[in-house]
Amino acid sequence: MKVVVLTGAGISAESGLSTFRDSGGLWEGHDPMQVATPEAYADDPGLVQRFYDARRAALDTVEPNAAHHALARLEEALGDDLLVVTQNVDDLHERAGSRRVHHIHGRLRSAWCRACGVRHEWDGPLADTPPCPACGARALRPDIVWFGEIPYGMDLVEQALWECDLFVSIGTSGLVYPAAAFVHWARGATLELNLEPSAGATDFAESRQGPASELVPAWVDQVVGLLR
Ligand code: APR
């Protein structure tokens, strides 16, 4: 059985990472949505770098939760037949043990040199404009897909959705495209697992409401049970 899972900020909420639209909180007086744009970076690169430096540093303070671990368990059962497509820029899927994870919005722990184009695994800050380890230019930006930029690897995702038997969306508001359209691209059955019905909940064949740390392990138990 080929399964594609889409995850959003809701799967990491119970690990202590705030979602984008639930908190209503400001960061240094700015709406986080307005910091995540190429225009914001052009206007004030230091501000944008500090925002992502803080989010990168916060990764050291959080751990994967039961939902991330359940998806790693599902990969043990399904192997290459599972693809996790995530909008999240954290590394909690990988730290839970998932290997087939595709980050369509990039990753906090990756830095991208705008001078030479090389990407580097990155743990520290970028606001102090460190040199690129490859070319020396002080031109590293967060390897994050901002609003108005093209998500990574959509060909791969489109293909996987076309081939899947089941598409499951977890912890995402269904407001940001192209991920919000995946339910229409999926050829197989569709299921939503979310705290509340998302904007696109009625597009799914089935929608279950509750915290990801409960819904995801229960759903994985169901799938693994069917495979036995
Ligand atoms: N369990 C399950 N779902 C949850 C939980 C939880 N514990 N907590 C919150 N949610 C749900 C919320 O109800 C909401 O529908 O997760 C969703 C989070 O929505 P958003 O904050 O909009 O996050 P997401 O959908 O991932 O945002 C998409 O927007 O800002 C951009 O690039 C950013 O990748 C992000 C994209």
TrEMBL record:
> What detail does the entry give on cofactor binding?
Binds 1 zinc ion per subunit.
Listed under catalytic activity are: N(6)-acetyl-L-lysyl-[protein] + NAD(+) + H2O = 2''-O-acetyl-ADP-D-ribose + nicotinamide + L-lysyl-[protein]; N(6)-succinyl-L-lysyl-[protein] + NAD(+) + H2O = 2''-O-succinyl-ADP-D-ribose + nicotinamide + L-lysyl-[protein]
The terms under GO molecular function for this entry are: histone deacetylase activity, NAD-dependent; NAD+ binding; protein-malonyllysine demalonylase activity; protein-succinyllysine desuccinylase activity; zinc ion binding
InterPro entries per record: DHS-like_NAD/FAD-binding_dom (IPR029035), NAD-dep_sirtuin_deacylases (IPR050134), Sirtuin (IPR003000), Sirtuin_cat_small_dom_sf (IPR026591), Sirtuin_class_III (IPR027546), Ssirtuin_cat_dom (IPR026590)
User: What does the sequence similarity comment in the record state about its family?
Assistant: Belongs to the sirtuin family. Class III subfamily.
Domain topic, free-text comment: 2 residues (Tyr-52 and Arg-55) present in a large hydrophobic pocket are probably involved in substrate specificity. They are important for desuccinylation activity, but dispensable for deacetylation activity.
- This one is known as NAD-dependent protein deacylase
